[in-house]
Write a structure and sequence with these properties.
This protein has nine helices and no strands. By secondary structure, the chain is mainly alpha-helical. The chain has one domain: CRISPR-associated protein Cse2 (Peroxidase, domain 1).
Length: about 180
């Protein structure tokens, strides 16, 4: 029996499609550029041909919301095409926050957690750009990211809570490991 929901399967298939576009063997630079441009609202629909087959709303009123989620995900992936299953965006940001000291990364992360759906694209673009620039080899679980975007205002904060745990618990676990190593 398959434990994967149809929506999760669509997310996995979308990420697999994006990985094929970004693959060194078949790298489609023009497609990646179009997807990055889709991060700007005026060019958003340029990503629709890539994502349209991975949007199957359960209700007609959800079409645009789910298209927007897929378009945003595709743009973020094109910005930093390093997928790593089980490694949330928060988990990718936590060591960056630690290594940079101060509170600027943590403040940005808090702003991301409290962002509205309309503010989310800007906050996510900044967060993914930070991972790309500071830690380019660090992957992000884009299936998880797609789920978070899709449910941002519809999952009673479950994605935000999971990310908060990943961010702050990850830092605590690293501190505990460092303390044990020093002992």
């Amino acid at each position: 029996m398959n434990d994967v929901s149809p929506a999760e399967n669509l997310s996995e298939r979308l990420v697999a499609r994006l990985e094929r576009i970004a693959s060194p063997d078949t790298r489609d630079r023009a497609a990646l550029a179009r997807l990055r441009k889709a991060l700007h609202s005026s060019r958003r629909l340029e990503a629709l041909p890539v994502v349209i087959d991975y949007v199957e709303p359960s209700h007609p009123r959800d079409v645009e919301r789910l298209e927007d989620a897929a378009i945003l995900l595709a743009g973020l992936f094109a910005l930093h095409p390093v997928h790593r299953r089980g490694h949330s965006l928060a988990r990718a940001l936590a060591p960056i926050a630690e290594s940079q000291g101060g509170n600027s990364v943590e403040e940005r992360f808090r702003a991301l957690l409290s962002a509205s759906t309309s503010e989310l694209p800007v906050h996510l673009r900044h967060a993914v750009s930070l991972v790309r620039s500071v830690s380019p080899g660090t992957g992000i679980d884009y299936v998880d990211l797609h789920w978070a975007i899709r449910g941002w205002d519809h999952d009673e904060g479950a994605s935000r809570r999971r990310w908060a745990r990943d961010f702050w618990a990850g830092a605590q676990n690293r501190h505990d490991s460092d303390a044990q190593a020093d002992a």
